Amino acid sequence: xxxxxxxxxxxxxxxxxxxxxxxxxxxxxxxxxxxxxxxxxxxxxxxxxxxxxxxxxxxxxxxxxxxxxxxxxxxxxxxxxxxxxxxxxxxxxxxxxxxxxxxxxxxxxxxxxxxxxxxxxxxxxxxxxxxxxxxxxxxxxxxxxxxxxxxxxxxxxxxxxxxxxxxxxxxxxxxxxxxxxxxxxxxxxxxxxxxxxxxxxxxxxxxxxxxxxxxxxxxxxxxxxxxxxxxxxxxxxxxxxxxxxxxxxxxxxxxxxxxxxxxxxxxxxxxxxxxxxxxxxxxxxxxxxxxxxxxxxxxxxxxxxxxxxxxxxxxxxxxxxxxxxxxxxxxxxxxxxxxxxxxxxxxxxxxxxxx
Amino acid sequence: xxxxxxxxxxxxxxxxxxxxxxxxxxxxxxxxxxxxxxxxxxxxxxxxxxxxxxxxxxxxxxxxxxxxxxxxxxxxxxxxxxxxxxxxxxxxxxxxxxxxxxxxxxxxxxxxxxxxxxxxxxxxxxxxxxxxxxxxxxxxxxxxxxxxxxxxxxxxxxxxxxxxxxxxxxxxxxxxxxxxxxxxxxxxxxxxxxxxxxxxxxxxxxxxxxxxxxxxxxxxxxxxxxxxxxxxxxxxxxxxxxxxxxxxxxxxxxxxxxxxxxxxxxxxxxxxxxxxxxxxxxxxxxxxxxxxxxxxxxxxxxxxxxxxxxxxxxxxxxxxxxxxxxxxxxxxxxxxxxxxxxxxxxxxxxxxxxx
Lengths: 355, 355
Fold this sequence. Notes:
2 copies of one chain form a homodimer. By secondary structure, chain A is of the alpha+beta class. In chain A, α3 (about 90-100) packs parallel to α4. Chain A folds into 2 domains: about 25-170, CATH 3.30.1330.10; about 175-345, Phosphoribosyl-aminoimidazole Synthetase, Chain A, domain 2 (Alpha-Beta Complex). Chain A is globular. Chain A contains 9 helices and 14 strands. Residues about 1-10 of chain A have low confidence and may be disordered. At the A-B interface, α1, β1, β2, α3 and β5 of A face α1, β1, β2, α3 and β5 of B. β1 (about 60) of chain A pairs antiparallel with β2 of chain B, so a sheet runs across the interface.
C-alpha cells in the first residue's frame, strides 16, 4: 500500500476508533461482527448523523418533495487518496452531487459504499470520512445509508468509495442531449485542466513554480440558479473523465447536431498550459471536477453568463461555441491559427484513476 | 489475478466486445475515451436497455409511484467471483433488492458501479453482466444508471460491484426495530448456512458428498405478499454478514427488547451442519443471501407462516422464537440440551469476503 499524504487537519476531532487498539483496518472490520459495528457506530455514525442512518436498518426511507427525481452513481478509485485541493472523500461527494446537478436536480440524499484494504491506517480513513462529511454539509446532502467491505491486503489500494445520490427536480424542464437545438450557445463554467494536472503532478512527484490545485467543487448552486432565473437550459454536462472534448463528442453523437468550439475562447491557466506541455497532455481531454458546460437557448446566453459569473465556482463562465445548423453528429474546433478540425474522443488512455 | 470458475453458459449470447481485439480489460476501458464508450455502449447497454440508461446522461430521471421510497446500497467483493448457486453479478442484484425488501419496499431501480481490475478477462465480465441482467429481470428491477472504473493490475481482485437501489413503499406500515413489541413472533424464512458454506468450500477446494449451493435469491415476493395479506409486520432483516446471531443482536440492541430463540427450531441442513463441524463454523453466524427473519404481531404468526410457505424461496419458514417482555437489549438461546445462554456478535472474523 502506498503511503498517503493527508492534508493537515490538526486540531480536528480525534479519531473515534482508538488508534492504539486498531491502528489499521482489519479484515474483521468488514466481517459483520463486533469490529464492523464499532467502526460503523463510532466512526461513520459520529459524523453522518442523519436520523435515517441512525436507524441502522437495511436502507433509508424518505418522502420525495418533487414529482421527478434524479438518481446517479459513481465509484471513486483516485490515486493518490489525497491531492492538492481535495481527497477521495470530498471528491466522492462532489462527483455524485455534480452528476445530479447535471440532471437539473437538487441533490438531497447520498449512499456511501466503502471498500477498504486490510492495513489501511485508521487515521487515514478518519480523515477521509471527515472530508466526506464536510463536503456533504457544504452541498446540503445527507448520507443516509451505507456499506463497508474490507478486502485482503494487496487486493485494493487503500480505499475505494462508491456514492449513489438522489436529487429532487424542482422545475419542469427536461435536461437532455435530445433537447439541444441549432443555434444553442455553448457555455463553459471556467478554466480547464486543474484537477488532472494536480493529480498527475502529485503522482509523478512533479513540482511546478506554484502548486496547482484541483478544481474539485460542488456545482449545485450555479446550476440551480439557472432554473430559478427562468433560463431555458437544454443540456448540462460536467467535464470529468475525458474532459471537455469527450463531453462534447457524447452530446454531438446523442443529439445529432454538430457543435462548434473556438479554441481561443477556452480558458486554460498559464501554469496548467505549461504543465500540459511538459506532460504531453491536451487540456481538452483532461478531467475536471468542478467544471461543466451548458447548452442553452441562444437568446438566454447573456443571462446565463451573468447568473454563473455571480458564483465563485463559475466566475469564469464564458461562451466557447455554439450548435451548428447541421446534423452530422460531430464536434469541430477552430484552432488558434484559424484552421477548423474535427474533435474526437481519444482512443488510448490519457490519465488512469483520475477520479 | 485468480482464475475464475464460471458457470457453463454455453449457448448464451456472444460477448459483444470482440475477444480477439480486447481479450482482457485495459486501463483505457475506464479512461473516458473510445474504449470506455465501446464497453458501456456494446456490453452494458446491450443488456441493461432501460430508456433512462440509453440516454447515457449523468443520471437517470424517474417519477416515484408512492409517497415513501426506500434507498439502500451494498458493495460486493465476494471471492471467488463464481460459486455454486450464483456469482458476484446475481449476488449484487439479490443483495440490494433484498435490503429494499427488508424496508418493506418493492425494488424498482438499481445503479451499478463496476470497479474492474486491469487484466480481467472480458469474457468473465460478460458472464457477470449477463447474470446481473437475468437477476434484475427476475426481480423486476431496472438498472438505470451506472459507472465503470478500472484499477491497475494487483489493485483489485477481478471485479468489485456496487449497487444502490430505490424501492417504492406501497403500504402504510413502518418497518423498524423500534416497532418490535413484547410477544412478537420471530419467524425464520428457511434453513441457514448454505451461502457461507458454498463460498468456503469453493475457496478452500473442499469437496463434500454433494455440492452445497448458495441460497442466494430474491426475497421480494414473499415479503410483499405479507403486506398484501394485511399482516402486521414489525421488523424484517436479511441474514447476510454475521448471520442470524448478528441480526438478532442488532435488533435487540436497537429495540431494547430481549429476544429468545429455540436452537432446535432453527433449520440447518444435515450436509451444511456436517460442513460446519469440519470447518469449525457456527451456522448461527454464517452469511445467507436468501434468508430473512420477520418479527410480527404474534396473533398474525400463523398467517405469516402460511403466506411465506407458499413461495419456494421461503417454503421452510418456521417460528424460531419470540420477543420477551423484558428490556435488557439481549438475545437468549435455549440450546438443544435445554440450557439458556446469551447470544452475542462474534468478535473476530469468521468469513471474510463472503459478499
